[in-house]
Amino acid sequence: MDSLVKRILQLLQENSRLPQQAIADMLGVSRNEVAAAIDQLEKNGIIKGYSAVIHWEKAGYEQVTAMIDVKVTPQRDAGFDAIAERIYRFPEVKSVYLMSGAYDLSVVVEGRTIKEVARFVSEKLSTLEHVLSTTTHFILKKYKQDGVIFDDREGDQRLVITP
């Protein structure tokens, strides 16, 4: 991969709202070069989309996030891909990863309540053919997501000294 393209990708990953002119200025190239590179990256499916990292709790919206370990039986001629696709098609599912180790897939699910997530696991996920078992871990607090720190104590980190 061209080093200019890699640097554009890194900048967009850090802040997808950067204007193309700002990226061009940072990299010492023309805005047209940046625009053409981004257009090609989008057409090639390298840039899959742009999103914001939202602190939903601070915005006043309650939601429950769970990470679910899933053991599956791989399918002949499809391996893990077919069952992973069935799982990621559910609207509750935010991410699916093929893992090494004790389980096969890691599934991130969001819902409004614990009961809603539990219902998804018991009625939709665990009943799928080829799913052998699930282990659900509820996220209690987010400290950092996608490189963004959620902790509000980011300000003054100096130690308080008292006499």
UniProtKB/TrEMBL annotation:
The keyword DNA-binding applies. SMART domains: HTH_ASNC (SM00344). Keywords: DNA-binding, Transcription, Transcription regulation. Pfam families: AsnC_trans_reg, HTH_24. PROSITE patterns: HTH_ASNC_2. Residues 1-62 form the HTH asnC-type domain. One of its GO terms (molecular function) is sequence-specific DNA binding. InterPro entries: AsnC-type_HTH_dom, Dimeric_a/b-barrel, HTH-Siroheme_Decarb, Tscrpt_reg_AsnC-like, Tscrpt_reg_AsnC/Lrp_C, WH-like_DNA-bd_sf, WH_DNA-bd_sf. This is AsnC family transcriptional regulator. It comes from Kyrpidia spormannii.
